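protien #1 (seq + structre)
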Amino acid sequence: MRAYYYDNVPGDQRLPHDYSPSRPVSQETLKALNVEHWVIPVDGHLPKIDAIAKEKGYKNRDMINVSKEGMGEIYEEKIKTFFQEHMHEDEEIRYILSGTGFFDVRETPTDEWIRLAVEPGDLIVIPPGIYHRFTLDEANKIQAMRLFQDEPKWIPYNRSKETDMNPHRIDYLKRVGVGA
């Protein structure tokens, strides 16, 4: 996974949106935001994924194929939904099996976007309460294993004044040392 600051230049969200020169983001910065990352080669990945799932208490999993072929008629609508700035009340755990894409997370307290370019073998954990979004890159496809602590669910709370007051958002800010 490559992490860098998003340039905010208008245009296709699927482009890299990297500054020139690039502004890389360190592992320490991601750790301070509670974003976790592992690289687990796809060949023979299951025992390692199972061990992490057991350690972190992930009880369920499924697969998602984000592509025109995999999603059919709802593809365009889902891509727009994924790229809206939102948070979840649960961790978002993704292990990339094939394809490539971008997760963008909001850095706190600067409110800058950090782009996480993911590829096969990347396992990322986006904490509850962090504002983020997702998009494919120009290849327009990614297949990922989604892991869940309980029953599979994916409920986005789009950024708003109400969402800013969500207890999971407030807890996240406390965990990263921002807010009361």
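ok now protien #2
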Amino acid sequence: MSDLSPNYLITLELRDLLVEKLGVLQKNNVALQQSLREQQTQTTAQTEDLFLELLEVADALEALLNYLENNPDPSPEFMERLPKSIGAVNRKFLSVLNKRQILPIELQEGTEPDFNLCRVIDREERTDMPDQTITKIVRRGFLLGEKVFRPTEVITAKSDNG
């Protein structure tokens, strides 16, 4: 039987160049694998931090719910503090988002909508406002950096002649 595999002759220069390039590729491969491991470790740590912060928000909500569950007839003092308590939980949650560059979109009722930032979900007949004016913000929107993460949902005025 004859050897059917072809034999290639390469110059010593080409062989050295190939060996050098293989060495560089192996070095790059090791560096990329190390970088990937570091990124995975960093991502895991960031994810754990996010979940721990969200658990603080959940704990605050759970404490309020537990109090209400265990006190079916809450004191007037508690009921008076409840909006502030819920506001504090909301601020905590928004600060968790803020740390991750997720910021609320600031739109005002009585202004014209910026359709890059909001979505009109309904229109209502209004004679006291110009057509297309925001009458109500239904759901707050958020930006992730410069990107609209979630558009603000609004209701706009619909004039008789609009």
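Residues 12-70 form the longest helix (59 residues).
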